[in-house]
Amino acid sequence: ALQCREREKKSTVTIFGYPLSIFFIVVNEFCERFSYYGMRAVLVLYFKYFLKWDDDFSTTIYHTFVALCYLTPILGAIIADSWLGKFKTIVYLSIVYAVGQVIMAVSAIHDITDGNKDGTPDNMTLHVALSMVGLLLIALGTGGIKPCVAAFGGDQFNEDQDKQRSTFFSIFYLSINAGSLLSTVITPILRAQKCGIHTQQQCYPLAFGVPAALMVVSLVIFIVGSGMYNKTAPTGNIMVKVFKCISFAIKNRYRNRSSKIPKREHWMDWAEEKYDKLLIAQVKMVLKVLFLYIPLPMFWALFDQQGSRWTLQATTMDGNFGLMVIQPDQMQTVNPILILIMVPVVDFIIYPLISKCKLNFTPLRRMTVGMFLAALAFVAAALVQLQIDASLPDFPSSTEQQAKFINMVDRPIDITAGNYTFQLESNEDYYTYGRQFELKIDTGSPVLISLPDGTRNTLVILEEFGDVVAKPEEGANAIRFFNGFGMVLNITVGEEGFGNIISKNMSTYVDVPQGTAEFLIKNAAGNQCVFSREFGFGSSYTFIIPPTFTLEENCGQHIKEVEDIKANSIHMAWQIPQYFLMTSGEVVFSVTGLEFSYSQAPSNMKAVLQAGWLLTVAVGNIIVLIVAEAATLPDQWAEYILFAALLVLVCIIFAIMAYFYTYIDPAKIEGNFANLEPEDEKKKNLEVAKKDMVENHNEKRRKSSNSSSDEEETSQTNF
Description:
The chain is α+β, with helices and mostly antiparallel strands. The protein contains 19 helices and 21 strands. Helix 5 (86-107) runs antiparallel to helix 6, helix 5 packs antiparallel against helix 8 (204-224) and helix 14 packs antiparallel against helix 17. This is Solute carrier family 15 member 1.
C-alpha cells in the first residue's frame, strides 16, 4: 500500500497527461543515440586513416565492436532485473559509457605522442590501446542500458495510461531515429575539419569529443529527473528462469536416457518434475520462435556493412553534389532518411495494395522478401564496385615496377625502354617492367635502369622520382612540382608548403583537398605569381615548371600538368540504389520480424525474444569479421557477390522453415492453463484434501481420547 501511494504521489507531476519524468528519459535517449551513432559513423575511417589499418582489419575490428554492443544487452537485462534495478543500472553503465567515449576522444589526439611534431604519432601502440579500451567500455555501456531505458520509461505510467504509454514509445523511437540521423550528418562534418597543436589534420578528436559531451549531457539529464521516477525493485529476470528451466530439462532427459523409460511428447516436458506446465508451455513457444531466428544473422551480416565496407567504398568515389560536398561517412545518412520515408509508405500504401490483391503476405513471407532485397543491395554494390575498379589505376604488384617518362626538351625524343619503343613528346602512360630494363634515347647507347620493386616512378630525362602507389587518403589529391626553371622556387598552397625546390628537382607530395587550390610560387628575389587549379577527389598530379617559365600574372599557362592518378570518377549517388534496396529490406524484415516475434511470444517472455533478436545482430557481425579475415578473394566486388549468394541460400532455407511453421495464439494457450486445471494438479489437490481429512479425523480422535481420560481422572479423584 505504501508503494502504491508513493507511485501515485510521483505520478501527479504531469504535463498534458504525461508524467514529467518521461521527458527526461526521451531527451536522455536522444543524446545517447546521437553519441553512439555519431561515434560509429566515423569509426571505420578512424581505423583506416588514423590508426593506419588496412580495409580488412578495419572492417574486422568495426564488426567486433558492433557484435559486442549487441551481446552485452543480455548482461544489462540480468543486472537490472536481478540485482540493481533499471535506474541504477542505467546510471552506472552510463558512467562507464561516458568514460569510454572520453577515452576514444583522447586516443584520437595525435599531438599527445607526436614528439618530433611531424604530424605522425610516435607511439601508435598507445593510441591503439586507448581506442580498444574506449570501445570496450562503450560496448559495455551502450549494450547494457539498451534493454533498460525503454522499459524504464514504460514503468512511469499507471495501469490506466495505456494510450499515453503507447504514444511514449512512438516518441521514444522517434528520438532514436532523430539522434541517429543528426549524428551521422554532423560528426562527419566535424571529422573533416582541421585541428591540432603542431600540425593540422582531420579532426577525429572533435568527431569523438562531441558524442562524448552528448553522453555526459545524457547522463546528467537522466540523473536530474531522479526524484520524479517510479523506480521498481528488481523482481528477478525471466531469462534466468528460462535458462534454468531449459537446463533442468536437458539434464533430466540425460539422466533418464534409458530405453526402458517412456518417452515424452516434447523434450521440454522433462522439466515437469521441477517447473509448472504453464512455464514449460511458454518456453516451448519461445523456443519455436528462436528456432526461426537461426538463419537471421546472415541478414545483419550484410546490413551492418553500411558502416564499414560501403563507407570504405565511398572513399573511392566522387562526393561533389554541386552545392555541397558529401563526405564518405555521410552517405550513411541515406538509411535513416529513407527509413522515415519508407515506413509510412510501406504501412499505408504497399501492404494495403498487396492485401487488395488477395495475396496472403504473412509476416514470415515479408521477412523472406526483406532478406532477398538485402541480397539485391549487395549485387548493386558489386556492380558499383566493378565500375570503381575500372576507373582505378593498375598499380604494380610486389614484384613489378612501373615507369613513365617526361620530355623536358624542345623536340621529340625516340625512346626504347625494354620491350617498349615510342617517340616521347609528352607521355603520361605507365609501362610495367620486370627487375630492370635497358633505356635508349635516340641513337645513344642503352642504359640499364633498375627500379625498386612494387613502385611507380617518373623518369625526367635520366632522373627518376618515386610516385604514389595508392590512391591518396581521405579523398585528398597528391600534388607535387618538378622545377625545370633555372633557379630555386618556393611553392605554398594554403598553410601547406612544398618548400624550396631546387632546379632540376622534384618536390615531395602534398595533400590538397577537393575544390579550387591556389599555389603561390615565389623566387629568391621576391617575385611571385599565383597558379589556380580545380581538383576532384583522390587524384595525383605532377606539375612541371618549364625552363621558359616566367613569374607573371598568368603564369599557370606555362605550367604543364601530368596526371599520375585520375580523380574519382564514379559519383557517390550511385550508392543510393543499394541503400534504397537495403533500407527496403530493413523495413520489411526488421519491423515485421519484431512484430511477428511479439505476436508469437508469451506475455511475460517478450524480453527473452528481444534478447534473442539482438543476439542475431551480434552473430551477424561475427560472420562479417570471419569472412573479412578468412576470405582470400582478391576483389571487393567478389566479396559482395559472396555475401549476396550466402544470403540468398539462407533466404531459401528460411522460406522452407517458414512454410512448415504453424502460427499460434500465445494468449489462448496461456488461457487454457489458467482456466483448465491440469489432471496432475487435480490429483495433487485430491491427495492434499485426503491428507487433510485424515489429519482432521485423527485430530478429532485424539481430542476425544484426551477428553475421556480427563473425565476418568476426574471421577477417580472425586471418588
